[in-house]
Specification:
This protein is α/β, with parallel strands linked by helices. It has two domains: 171 residues, Thiolase/Chalcone synthase (Peroxisomal Thiolase, Chain A, domain 1, 3-Layer(aba) Sandwich), CATH 3.40.47.10; 156 residues, 3-Layer(aba) Sandwich (Peroxisomal Thiolase, Chain A, domain 1), CATH 3.40.47. Strand 10 and strand 11 form a beta hairpin. Helix 1 runs parallel beside helix 4, helix 2 runs antiparallel to helix 3 and helix 5 packs across helix 11.
């Protein structure tokens, strides 16, 4: 199997172990998997292309393409590995895919189509990803500097994060450790450009407002924002603009940080990793910094938690993610109080 699939399987095993879930706790037909990805298994395509360039394709490359490349195989193989037999779905909404997967898992639980869902994202670094962003002029020449005035682009990363989602009643019955409540989800699509966001930030605004409405919360309730924060000049400016439109004057006071400054941009896995950070923030009451933030940008007038983690009582954390094609997804995590 491909590298992204291996990431996802390992993350799923770790998540289930951390959740204390035993096979006896799960009705397989009521347990689902939903995984976001941008590229699936691009290394398989690279191998096929290398084979063609060498005079192929050879039979091994063709077999690997059929056996590992189709993106639906990532959740299918995770489900097979952990023994889940409920809904299994790939969500390919680019860099917003991890948040989309969590939102879909919440829908499955609310609709009582599943009791437990493994939700997250997985992507592996590849030449295809790096070259594509380089051709767009979006790769940083040295360091990812989200929201900094001298930012010049993103740095590709890779990985996976999986969250165990279940109903509060189900978690209480088995005495589960609960990190946070997924309080609300908001999705939107700009339908504006293949790669660029709508210039006014309207799509991002709709996603944030929809998440707040779904949770029955006002903007004043949000303690911390985990930003999409890629470090590209255009993306960070649009995200700051959208945050200002939703939160008004308070936008300057809400801590906003981007862990892509530390991990790079893991594509479809990025917002899943950031979701885990938000859940932990509501438990540990500590938020991560934006590294390499040296020079404030007037176009990004935010409290970017520069360079050092901060102690903060996080009652509600907002996780934002924006992807190519205008895909926008915001998820709210609320401090759990039994």
């Amino acid at each position: 199997m491909g590298r992204a699939t291996q990431f996802a399987i390992l993350a799923a095993r770790l998540a289930l172990a951390d959740a204390g879930l035993q096979p006896r706790d799960v009705a397989p037909a009521r347990a689902g998997v939903t995984i976001g990805t941008t590229s699936g298994e691009p290394k398989v395509v690279e191998r096929l292309q290398d084979s063609r360039a060498a005079g192929g394709p050879d039979d091994d490359a063709l077999r690997e393409l059929a056996a590992a490349y189709p993106s639906h195989l990532i959740p299918a193989r995770v489900a097979s590995d952990v023994g889940f037999r409920g809904p299994a779905l790939t969500i390919p909404t680019a860099c917003a895919a991890g948040n989309h997967a969590i939102a879909h898992a919440v829908d499955l639980l609310r609709a009582e189509r599943a009791d437990i869902v493994l939700a997250g994202g997985a992507d592996a670094f590849s030449r295809i990803t790096f070259t594509g962003f380089a051709r767009l002029g979006a790769i940083a020449p040295d360091t990812c500097r989200p929201f900094d005035r001298h930012r010049k682009g993103m740095v590709p990363g890779e990985g996976s994060a999986m969250l165990v989602l279940e109903t509060a009643a189900g978690a209480a019955r088995r005495g589960a450790r609960i990190y946070a409540e997924v309080a609300g989800c908001g999705l939107s699509c700009d339908a504006f450009h293949m790669t660029g966001g709508e210039p006014s930030g309207a799509g991002a605004v709709r996603a944030m407002e929809a998440a707040l409405s779904d949770a029955g919360l006002t903007p004043d309730a949000v303690s911390y924002i985990s930003a999409h924060g890629t470090g590209t000049p255009a993306n960070d400016r649009l995200e700051a603009l959208a945050i200002a439109r939703v939160f008004g004057d308070r936008a300057r006071r809400i801590p906003v940080s981007s862990i892509k400054s530390m991990l790079g941009h893991a594509m479809g896995a990025a917002s899943a990793i950031e979701a885990a950070v938000c859940a932990l923030a509501t438990t540990e009451h500590r938020i991560p910094p934006t590294l390499h933030y040296d020079t404030p940008d007037p176009d990004c007038d935010l409290d970017c938690v520069p360079n050092e983690a901060r102690e903060l009582h996080v009652r509600v954390a907002m996780n934002n993610a924006y992807g190519f094609g205008g895909n926008n997804a915001s998820v709210l995590f609320r401090e759990w109080r039994s």
